[in-house]
Specification:
Blueprint lengths: L4 E6 L13 E2 L2 E2 H10 L5 E6 L2 H7 L6 E3 L7 H12 L6 E4 L9 H13 L5 E7 L3 H5 L5 E4 L5 E5 L19 E10 H7 L6 H6 L3 H6 L4 E5 L14 H7 L3
Parallel strand pairs: 1-4, 1-6, 4-5, 7-11
Antiparallel strand pairs: 2-3, 6-10, 7-10, 8-9
Helix pairs in contact: 3-6
Length: about 250
Amino acid sequence: MTAFHIVIPARYASSRFPGKPLVEINGKTMLEHVYQVAKKSSASSIVIATDDKRILDVAETFCDEVLMTSSLHQSGTDRLAEVCQLKQWGADEIVVNLQGDEPLTPVELLHQVAENLHNHSHASISTLSTSITNVVDVNDPNIVKVVSDINGYALYFSRATIPFQRDSSDIDISNNYQRHLGMYAYRVRFLNAYSKMPQCELETVEKLEQLRAMYHGHKIHIQQAVKLPGPGIDTPDDLQKIHTLLAP
C-alpha cells in the first residue's frame, strides 16, 4: 500500500462562515469529525495546519500534530507547502490534502488519490472527478468542470461549461461532463516549488488554484472517484443535513 501523509488545513476566517472548523456537530467540532475520517486511513501521519490560536487550542485536544502556519497564505496548497518545510518531509513523499470542511469524505478516496499519484510518475498532483448527471450542474459556476486527455491528465479546469457544444443550444448530458472533486495528493517536491510560483491570470480569473500548477507546466492526473463524497459545509444553512448524516 502506498505510504502518504494527510494534512488538514483549517482556517478560522471565512467570508461565508467564520469559525467553520469549530462548529459543533453532534457533540464534536467539524474539525474533529474530519480528523476521525483521516484516522480511519493508513496514513503515516496526520497533521492539522491552522493560522488561528482558537483552532490550535481545540485541535490539540484530539490531534497529536497541530501546526501553526502563516496567516498570509493565498491558498490551502501554500499552507501545505509550509507544513512540508516544517516537517522536512522528503521530496518524493506524498501528501494528501483533506479539506477541514468535508466530514463526510469516504476514506476510500484518501487511499485512491494517493495510489493514483504513486502510479503516475509524470504527475505532480492527482485528483478525482465524477460524472455530472444533470444539466443544471453543467451550467452551475459553483461546480468546477474538468476535461482530460486520453491518458487521464487534465487539460483544463473551469467554472464554465466545458466542453462547450458549439452546434447545439441543448446540452447533451451523455457527453460525459466531469465534475472535479476537490481532493488532491501532491508530491512534496512539487509543493516546495509551488510556494515560489507566481499566480497566473487563469487562476486569478477562475479562482482555481490548480490552474497555477498547470500554467507552470505541471501535470495533474485524474481518476473517477470510486465512491461519492457526502456534501460539504459552505454556509450555516448546510449544517442541518450534516447533523442528520453524522448522527450516531
